[in-house]
Structure formats: structure tokens, C-alpha cells
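REQUEST ID: PR-0412
SUBMITTED BY: lab tech R.K.
PRIORITY: routine
TASK: structure prediction, single protein chain
INPUT:
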Amino acid sequence: MSDSPPRRRLSLPPAAPAKVAPPAATAPSARRAPATAQPAARANAGPAARPFNGPNAGANASPRPPVRPAAARAPSRPDPWQGRSPDRAPPPAARRAPAAAPPAGEGGTSRLNKRMAELGLCSRREADDWIAQGWVKVNGEVAPMGLQVLPTDRIEVERVAQGFQEQKVTILMHKPMGYVSGQAEDGHTPAVALINPRTHWREDPSRMRFSPPQLRGLAPCGRLDIDSVGLLVLTQDGRVARQLIGEDSDVEKEYLVRVQYGDVALNVQDAFPADQLARLCHGLALDGQPLKPARVDWQNPEQLRFVLKEGKKRQIRRMCELVGLKVVGLKRIRIGRITLGNLPVGQWRYLGAHEKF
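STATUS: complete
OUTPUT:
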């Protein structure tokens, strides 16, 4: 009984101010505020990354002064880094790059590496390498990997990247019969195996010297069948590859084709119908798709000249089969402005700095 009065005296004083003084109602809320703010601070250890967490980021902000910096508020426009985890948030430069909305009448955004390839700066693979090295800037800021850009964004490439590109070689070869143009298949040797100092044409006007690193990443630009001969281009330069075999390529390829018409092997020109020659120029389809117009004419009574702007697999041979012709010999003599010339069979030379396709 002696312990109960002290407990009543200790509990009564706090209750009295709560009834009389208005500040007592606000004091508990002031004490509770840190309890709610503390978990929020732990959840947002990286406040700069919060705008990328979702489209409603920042929607529950209180009227009180914001804890996050102003730059971290949720953007009003779509963000290319939407959905990335906070630990992989882009640097400040990457967040500023897509700040401008697409102008009226302009197309949407595209990946930076694709845009660079479209501009002819390099291939997509090269663009990825340059971006990873920090050699690419968008609107004056170093670009991160995967950045989305607008057609109006300014893209700059450091000179060091251009220097690496200038060191890449393009090789012109007179491919002999029996070699495949790409990877080894069915036991046949790829044409790249012919590239060595012994087969380098002595009259190469470029005066460049061979070194083993020039074989790294060297790839053929277009097919030349195992039973065909002539000009084959192999390059390390993604710009050249895109120009020759890209989807929008319109570079001409010229071929000399020796043919037979049924049993007729001599003076085929007289036996072959003129209307079928017209079909070779325009009107044929392969794999269910119409072919682009071609130029086809007689070079001599047994030989046709084809000029194409596309390169489907075994295209000329299949075209000839559709009109009753059999190809007995095929030689590519020109790609764009580059001709085979006097380059001997089985030898190669460099594409000179002054030469363009």
C-alpha cells in the first residue's frame, strides 16, 4: 500500500499538461518524426539513384523542405535508365544527356552505338569498345554504355579512337577456286589463310608492311563461292563492312559469268532468247523476295556481265538457273570503284589510303 501513492504522483503530472497546454499535442509528433525518417534515410542511401526506381518516385514528398537534393527529383520526361538498380545508377553526365524532350516531328531515341554506326563513325562493336573506354561524348559529356540519344544530340569521338581506327587494314585478294570466303566449312580452307608475307603482291602501291596483328578481326565483306574466283575484300574496319554489306548498302559488284544454254556451249548469245535476258535484268525473285534491278549484258557469245547491288547466297547461279542457263565460270572483277586489276590469283594487297569504294 505504501508503493501505490508514488506511482499515482508520477503518472499525474505528465497527464495534466497534455490536457491544458496545446504544445503537448505536437510534441509526440515531433518525437515520432525521426522514427519514420530514419528508415527512409536507410532505404535511400543513394538519393541520387531514387528517381530511377519507378515512375512515381517522389510522389509522396511532404510539404516540409525535401531531404533529397533538387537534382534527384523524379524527372517529368522518360528516363533511359528507368528500372536500373541504385548501385548501377549512371553518372551525373548520363542523367543530364536525355533531359531534352524529342522535338516535334523528329523520331524517337536510339542506342548510342546504333546511332554512331548510322552516322558512319564506326561499327556497333567498335562503338561499344569506344564507349567503354570513355572516348565518346554526347552533348559534351562522357557517355555511358547503353545511352539512348536523339537525332539532334551532338556526338563527339576522341582522337585516340580515330587513331586506332586508322591502324585497321582492309585487304583486297584475288581469291582462287577451292577456298571459302568465310569460316572453314566441309574441310575447305578459308581465304584468310592465304594472307601472309609470301603472298603479298610485290607491286602493292600502298607500300604497307604485313604484321600478324592485322589478322585479328579480319572478316570478309560479302561472299564469293568456293567455285568462284576474283576480288574478295577482307577488313578490320567496321565502316568498310557496313558500306559494303550493310542493310542500306548500294555499292555495285561486277561479275563476268561464262554460261551454257542447254547443250549449247558455243555462241550461246544467239541461242538464248532476248526476253529471258530481260528477266535477268528485272523480274526474278529468290526465296520469295523480288530481286533488285540488275544490269546484265553480253560481253562475248559465251560470257555475260552482271552488275548487282545485292549479294544473296549463290545469287547469280540461281538467277541463271531460273532462265535455263548453267554457270560454268564466275569471276568478280569490281566492287564499287575498286577493281581487281592485275592482282595475281592467290595474292593480295592493301586498300590504299586514297582508295574508296
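NOTES: The CA atoms of residues 196 and 212 lie 8 Å apart.
REVIEWED BY: pending
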